[in-house]
Design brief:
Blueprint lengths: L1 H27 L41
């Protein structure tokens, strides 16, 4: 059992050590416009102007029409 705990602890430590490096590399790429992740619009498309899309301010205000049979 100790072996499993140590393996999972090693995986977690490896993830925690490499995650900041990955975020830094992505944010320096010019197509991501200084963001750690690339945002999509509420429709799932890439925005023309790069910026952070806030779900609470944009997508939560959308209304969905029911499908008529």
């Amino acid at each position: 059992m100790h072996r499993y705990v140590l393996v999972w602890l090693g995986v977690f430590i490896a993830f925690a050590a490499t995650f900041p490096t990955a975020m830094l590399r992505v944010s320096q790429d010019k197509k991501f416009a200084g963001q750690p992740v690339k945002s999509l619009t509420c429709e799932g498309k890439y925005p023309k102007v790069k910026g952070v899309i806030s779900w609470a301010q944009t997508c939560s205000q959308m209304a969905v029409k029911p499908i008529k049979k």
